[in-house]
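Subject: mismatched residue count in predicted assembly?

I count 1017 residues in my input, but I want to confirm that the predicted structure covers every chain. Input:
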Amino acid sequence: MKKNALDVLILFLFVLLPSSLLAANLPEIVIPIPLTGQQAKFGEMMKRSYQMAAEEINAKGGIRKQKLVLSFEDSGAKPETARAIVEKLIDSKKQPIIVGEYTSSCAKAVAAVAEERKTPYLIVASADDAITRQNYKYVFRQNAVNAHYADGVIDFFKQVVKPKTIAILYESSAFGTSGADAMVKDAEKLGIKVLLKEKYESGSIDFKPILSKVKAAQPDVLFMVSYVMDASLLMKQIKELRIDVKLFAGGAAGFSIPEFPDNAKDAADYVISATLWTPQLKYPGAKEYAEKYRAKYRDYPSYHGASAYSAIYVLKDTLERAKDYTPEKIRNALKATNIKTAFGPIKFEDKEGYQNQNFNDTLVTQVQKGEFETIWPQRHASKKYVYPIPKWRERR
Amino acid sequence: MTSVQLEVLLQTIISGIFLGGLYALLAIGMTLIMGVMKIINLAHGELMMVGMYIAYALFSYFQVDPYLSVFIAAPVLFGLGVILQKFLINPVMKVESILPENQVILTVGIGMVLANLATIFFASDYRSTPVSYATKAWYLSDFWKSSPIELSISFPWSVSFLIALLITAILWFFLTKTDLGKSIRATAQDNDAALLMGINVNRMRVITFGLGSSLVGAAGCLFIPIYYLYPDIGGQFTLIAFVITILGGLGSTVGAIVGGLILGIFESLTATYVGMGWAPVGRFIIFIAALIFIPGGIVSLFRKLRFGR
Amino acid sequence: MKKLAPALIIAALAMLPLIGLNTYLLHILIITIMWSIIGMAWNLLGGFCGQVSFGHAAFFGVGAYTSGILYHKLGLSAWWGMPVSIVVVALFALVIGFICLRLRGPFFALGTLAVGVILRITAENLTGITEGNLGIMIRERTWVDKTWYFYIILTLAVLVFILIKKIIGSKLGYYFVAIREDQDAAESLGIDTTFYKTIALCLSAVITGLAGAFYTSYMGYIDPKVVFALHDISIVVIMVVMVGGVATYWGPIIGSAIMVLLAELIRSIPKLGAAHLTLFGLLLIVIIIFLPNGIIGDIPKLKRLLGFRKSL
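Triage response: the counts match. Full output below for your records.
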């Protein structure tokens, strides 16, 4: 027994000490995410993806030969709690970089703290435009801003659909509001007339009143920004009312997660949606990640998961380039990031009034036979788009 | 009025009626509990969530149709309600405390635990039961070829609506025609008088809470084919149930139905003609108006009419 | 000794930042003190006057938005929100009181609950004034260091504590308690119940609004779903008071320590993950079953349960 203990001690002295002398010990990274409450679904998906990436990195030798240890704290999507967690991480645990959170309101609370305490913060999936428009030096965002989510859809409108009129439905949240506002601006630029712009409280049960109003307005295109299940309820009720427009389009979130075709079934067919990522993309590791996730958890992940997964690789890359593990050096390394991940190429730029913002291609998916297919831009397409779409009566 | 406007109006009213029917069933459980025990049960929506998870689990593991799972969810929820009342709520109600509202914390705690247990057992994923008839509907133009307007009636919404009415009718029969039902109503009307008449008030409370829970559990089974499910879904339904309970009158099944229908139609009309973002404001303005102007609920208006007072 | 206790506790709290407490603990303390202020406010109306409100988020939110709008629309410092909110919240409270105070018992509770929800949705829809769901963000908070925030909220808490003690010790306090015990009897004794209930509501609302205005300056970001939250504010404040002890001076303070500190501790238990809410929920259930009047309210019972002799 004693000998064993001695062995361990010697091993420790010879193997661990020198490396810790070369580089300070790799800190445990604690990630704040919502694990309870309404947003818990996304928190859970991101947690799985973070862990998946960490396991892969550790299997290949870790970061500078040290194991990356992740743990998670539940913020319950409450800004005070998210802030409490981050204050604790920066102050007591001296964690030199913050990754995580999901809702825009929590991300704003965390970003303010990170900036004050001069600790870099990498935002993974919070979309509200304002967060990276505050002249923050330490706040980085790898997902596109909400104003750009629909860029792919707009391009598709311009090239293929050429609509004259549009109706917009959106949910009452920061995400829904800014998505709808961005669409109004884009539509005006293209000369598309906005016939209707209506907000609804997320969690609504019956959309038929508002949908019959849409039916009466007869727009060319119906654009909807919805969370999770509202999207499938909308399409189910649209099918039931047989509202025929040239195209149904969704603004990411609810329209780009696997629950959408699973729940709406054939009502989801031919619906296009903006998204930031699909498993069919030819980015390195995208397909492998998606398949591995599906094998483990039954469904494909949405862009939230892919972004979380890639964030850990961004973290690895940053920590390996950083001269030491101080917030300042990590911040500089993060700023110089230029890598290709499963989520696409990532670099943080200052342009269009945003700071430290990654601009990746936004894509368009279409549900075909119950599966998401990437249809636009054409260089990323996995299948050709179906347009014009059949009328409800003609569908079998 | 053009035919398009007419179509919008009629379709709005149709959806309002269906929505109202479901709202009514949701509220009947609460109206019973509040009527008999005068407590504010903030775990009401969470009990519905439990019912929905039972329907979901039966559907995904045993392919049981959600409508059939009413027969399983209702008894299970009855048991759960009896246990909650007997071991948690009754002890707190018995104690003399400065504010009787301290049972509110109890129901909040119960709701918290139920929602969190659902997260642990079923994960926080959004669930649904994609039944084959989910988007089936009847259309006016199928029956009347040259109809100038098109109206549709959803199949699952109508089934849910009819079952809700059926359950309410059975409950009404139970409360007015059976001895047990009469005892429950007596307890609701005057606790002390019922006690003097030899009614076991404690037992009535336990039964009422069980019954209320099983009703809201059944409502959960009727909701899941047209809605969806996640652990924290309960809160919004608790609020709707409060509104209808107050609107209809505490402890009244008829009131709950009328209140549900009024609320459903009102909400649909607000959504169409004012804007869906404002619809919940309308809901709560009705609520406050009902609290102030018809404190006994709609049933009290009926009674006045009947007795010509 | 007993008389000195409050002064000693305050002195000890005031010394805390000087001994170099880290900012995380300071943040938790600030939030705890903020909640004890809201709790004391609720207790004045609910505990002493017997009007159980389920809508205190309405006052918190109005206070918070007063600050936010002053900053966002008029370019003033958000700190102006604290004095200005006194007037704004008092006006809101008068209107709400006019509508709701004619209701009694559970009906008053439900009425205030509805008011809270109505205000939230109104704030979401009036995008011209409140920016709706996008919320209001304060670009730069006044101080990075938390010491000043701590002293501000501590001072406010001490003032509120003294104010409430004075009120309850005065004639006004006797009227409040009389209304709680039996409104009709109070009325027959010639107490204008509506008038005194309105006073209790306005005082309670203004104090809550001050906490809301502080929240805006401290957190630097508000949106309707956060500051008008039904569960996270209106119901949490009821729990703060009921767990701590209804109609006691120290109850809200003990209650907020439990609701914030203990919740944070339980949340931080490693490996518990999402299950922390089950543990916390069970704790609430146990407290209310064994101590139906809250911890301070049931101190004799608590002593007995813990095995102290009566002579102690």
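The CA atoms of residues 150 and 183 of chain A lie 7 Å apart. Marking this ticket as 'not a bug'.
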